[in-house]
Structure formats: structure tokens, C-alpha cells
Amino acid sequence: MPIISMVSSKGGAGKSTAAVILGTELAERGSTVTLIDADPNRPVSKWSKRPNKPKTLTVLADVTEQTVIPEIERASTKSAFVIVDLEGTASMTVGFAISRSDLIIIPMRGSILDATEAVKVTKLLKAQEQAFRRSIPAAILFTQTNPAVRARTLRNLEDQFRQSDVPVLKTYLHDRDAYRAMFVFGGGLSTLDPAEVRNIPAARANADAFVREIISFLKPMAKVA
């Protein structure tokens, strides 16, 4: 079953948000999903303790450098999708998770600082590929973007990554109130109350495009529903 890891060498890039969006959307489509919270701040675990978590979604916390590989392998035998939310620093835990992943998503905001950190992840990825003698697909995910305007700086960064043969997802995760609201109220986008959260339909359309692109990315590797 596909193992997808969210990797960034800095905090605040949108790893946990992307992980929860992907996990809840897949679960609401009928898939079984395990979200492994390997971030010491435990954002996904805190989210999971709030109401309305999908029934087919399991969250595993308290994952350490010693247990991350066994937990990933165990989860892959039980769930159709395994999503790993990793800490925002380079560590052995991150390296071990990468070694077991079928797809690495590198979330980043549209800044030079984030681009520099994303390049560090691509270098770590190449080192892991050499160490384990296997290809590990990866793609950049731009996050917290303006839904109305695609800035020139963002287009330039996107071109630079593509010229370096680093795939960039066509779908950006926009800066949406609904994404932040999931961590306040719990559950996924479908359980948010329109009276409390603005523009949920736009967030759902954005999330749907993101999930569809991830599934398309995975299809050449394995049959996924």
C-alpha cells in the first residue's frame, strides 16, 4: 500500500495541514488511512482528539527513531494509505521514514528561504536513494498560496525546480480559513460548519484537486482506488 511522507527541513511549511487534508479526503472516499504523527509537536495527534475524525482513519503517535520503521510497516499491512507527518528538521527518524516511502511530498511556501530548505530535502532524498539503492519519487507542494494570484516569484521558483528535474505538483494548497479551522474544530472539510467557517466549498475544491493529483502520481507505482 502507498506510503506517503511529508518532509520539510523547517517548521511552518504546511506538512501537518497537507497530511490531514490528504488523510481525511482519502478516508471520506472510503479508503482506510493511517496517519503517523512523527512530529515532536504532535499537531496531528492533537487534531485527532477533537470530534469528527473519519472512522476509517487511524492516527499513531509517540513514534520514535527506534519505532518509526516498524510502525510504518505494520500500518502498511492494515491500511490502504499510510501518511507520515515528519518533524521539521533533518533527523534519523526522517531518513528512516524516507527509506520506506513510495512518495515524498515536500511542502513549501513561495519564498527563497523555503526554497533553500526544500533543496536540502532533495539532497537528503538523493543520499537515501544511494544508500538504499532504490528510487524514491518526490514532488514539491506549494502551500499557503494566494488563490487569486500566482505571484511572479512563485512562478520563478516553480521553473527553477522543474529545470532541476524536481517535479512540482500542479495543485497548490491555498491559504484557506477552512484548513486552519480543521485543527480548531476537528474532523475534515466536510464536517465544518459554514456558519463558523468561510468559503468551505472553495477549500473542498482545492483539496479535491490535491488528492486527485496525488492519486494520479501514485498510479504508475501501484493500483490505488
Under CATH, the topology is which? Rossmann fold
Structural class by helix and strand composition: alpha/beta
Bulk shape: globular
Radius of gyration: 16 Å
Question: How much is the average pLDDT?
Answer: 92
Overall description:
With 225 residues, the chain is of the alpha/beta class. The chain has a single domain (3-218), classed as P-loop containing nucleotide triphosphate hydrolases (Rossmann fold, 3-Layer(aba) Sandwich), CATH 3.40.50. It contains 8 helices and 7 strands. It has helices at residues 15-28, 43-48, 68-76, 92-99, 112-132, 152-163, 177-185, 200-218; strands spanning 3-6, 33-38, 57-60, 81-86, 103-108, 138-145, 173-174. A 7-stranded parallel beta sheet has the order 3-2-4-1-5-6-7, with helices on both faces. Helix 6 (152-163) links the parallel strand 6 and strand 7. Helix 1 packs across helix 8 (200-218). The N and C termini lie close together (11 Å). The mean pLDDT is 92.
State the gist of this model.
By secondary structure, this protein is α/β, with parallel strands linked by helices.
